[in-house]
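Summary of Year 1 activities. Much of the first year was spent building the evaluation harness for sequence design. The harness presents a backbone, in tokenized form, and records the residue chosen at every position. We chose the following record to illustrate the format because it has been used consistently in internal testing since the harness was completed.
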């Protein structure tokens, strides 16, 4: 096995070496990510990503591994199709960049799945709502309003400082009181 490796031209030894070593790192990195031990998190020292005007997320250890993985295997697999070593280098570098772009795209799509889409009562502030159950005057009790936030309708307890608000009246949410109560006024 080692004899076959040593019989290769030097550039092909580099491609094979990079491909094998980065494949091992990639497998370890993938296993750690699935186990929740992802080592590519920002440690506060800025070693994970370099913020560069919209290029954030492209400069990290993970993407270095992705680039080298594409570079190494691109060089190995394209050697028959591209006999000129200079063009093979260019093609391998191009494959490395494509690997980085693909993995960044995939990671961003996965991160969208983890976005918290739960309703926060503060999001109702300033929204127009429909009175569902009569709201007594001068904060003498609570009624209910139905408010639409991000396309979802929520039924929430409400009170008002002014006069009583009958069912079916449009109101504006003016204040959030605690974690389950809104203050509203007629529109």
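For this record, the design step produced the sequence shown next.
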């Amino acid at each position: 096995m080692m004899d076959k490796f040593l019989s290769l031209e030097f550039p092909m030894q580099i491609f094979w070496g990079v491909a094998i070593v980065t494949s091992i790192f990639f497998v370890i990195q993938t296993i750690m990510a699935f186990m929740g031990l992802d080592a590519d998190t920002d440690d506060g020292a800025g070693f994970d990503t370099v913020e560069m005007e919209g290029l954030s997320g492209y400069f990290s250890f993970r993407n270095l591994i992705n680039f080298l993985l594409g570079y190494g295997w691109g060089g190995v697999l394209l050697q028959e199709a591209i006999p000129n070593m200079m063009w093979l280098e260019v093609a391998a570098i191009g494959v490395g960049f494509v690997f980085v772009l693909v993995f960044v795209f995939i990671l961003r799509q996965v991160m969208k799945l983890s976005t918290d889409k739960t309703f926060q009562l503060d999001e109702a502030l300033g929204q127009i709502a429909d009175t569902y159950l009569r709201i007594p005057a001068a904060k003498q009790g609570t009624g209910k309003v139905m408010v639409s936030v991000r396309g979802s309708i929520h039924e929430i307890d409400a009170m008002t400082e002014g006069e009583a608000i009958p069912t079916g009246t449009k109101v504006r949410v003016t204040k959030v009181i605690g974690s389950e109560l809104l203050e509203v006024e007629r529109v």
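Residues 121-186 form a domain with the OB fold (Dihydrolipoamide Acetyltransferase, E2P) fold (CATH 2.40.50.140). Quantitative recovery figures across the full test set are reported in Table 2.
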